[in-house]
Amino acid sequence: MAATETAPGAVPPSNGVGDARLRKRAFVAFCVLGGAAAFALGMVAFMAWLFIRLSWPHVEPAGDPIFGVSFSCNQMEYLELEDPTLGRGAVPDDRPGRAEWCAARLSDLLEATGAPIVRISAEWQEVEPAPGKFDFTLLDALIGAAERNGARVLLTVGMKAQRHPEWYIPGWMLERTGGLEGGEVISDVPELRAGALAMAAAVVRHAARSPAVDAWGADNEPFVVSSRGEHWQDWRLGRDYITELVATIHANDPAGRPVSVNHGQHFVMDRRWRWALEAGDVLATSIYPFRNDSILGHPVVLPILEIGPLAPNYAHQARSAHAAGKGFWITELQGEPWTDYDVHLVSPANPSRNLDLRKFERNLEYARRSGAGRAYLWGGEWWLYQRDRYGDGSWLIAAAAAMSQE
Looking at the domain assignment, is residue 16 inside a domain? Predict the structure, then answer.
């Protein structure tokens, strides 16, 4: 039989054997490359797991901090009296019986949880409604509630206080300054600085007479730039002012109680906690382990303390404070959910993905392993609200269980 001729430029016909060999080689190469990629990804995943498992929340021994609560009259009013979901608008601060109502709600919280310590703030606009005219009615009522319930008070004093809007500078002082620019170090404004220090001195002299007060706070997260609201956006406080505020508190407290300076750190790269350590007798921090975010447009809750070496190392901060002869406290420990909608709507039927009781227990464990001597839980007002509006007392029960472990 004559041989088959192949036209110039044409592909020779396959005999099947060569194709099989090519397919086999391609398959082997695919397996090798795929295996290598899988191994590399596996190693990356293993290293990430190892970094997390060796991070402080998993290796530090559990301590025995004193758990307590924070309380804000404004927040209590917002939740129970100003509920927009029920059509309730703002209530005036000068309404009759306000101080008694707020003190009663604080007493209810302390009784329900058995909290041995409580953190409250002296809001400047509340205690000095007019220049040089001080009104301690609400402050005395809250301290009195703590006294009757056997709770010790950490009293924060300064330009910033707990809860929204954080800045509580009186309107009359803002008028005197002629307006403050965004991004300004407002503690460098002479009249504002002098007024804040004078107010702090007056508050300390007054509150120091109560045996329930056992510590002070010099402002609230003074080194965190607040960006809430158009009028107080991006105002800043200088380190020199906080140093002077701490000295002012000491000078007006004959009992020499410790002064804490707190900071809210998001990632380990933020070193401003060292400023707080240097300024006060106690380094304090705010810990919110669960943060809302989005990935590719999908909402997620990030466990910030489970990101290994990128997470704030609170155990290291505690050791640094103790090495300097100072204390380490958690002045805000997440005990209520952060939501992207009205927190009034969070209920047993509509729980928040940000925080549930299981995550709440994890937060308590983080606090135990942080090296903190005290941990003030953030959210007591919301626990009362959940019980009173929705009949859900589980948050108060969980908090009481933490207090009873002292």
Answer: no
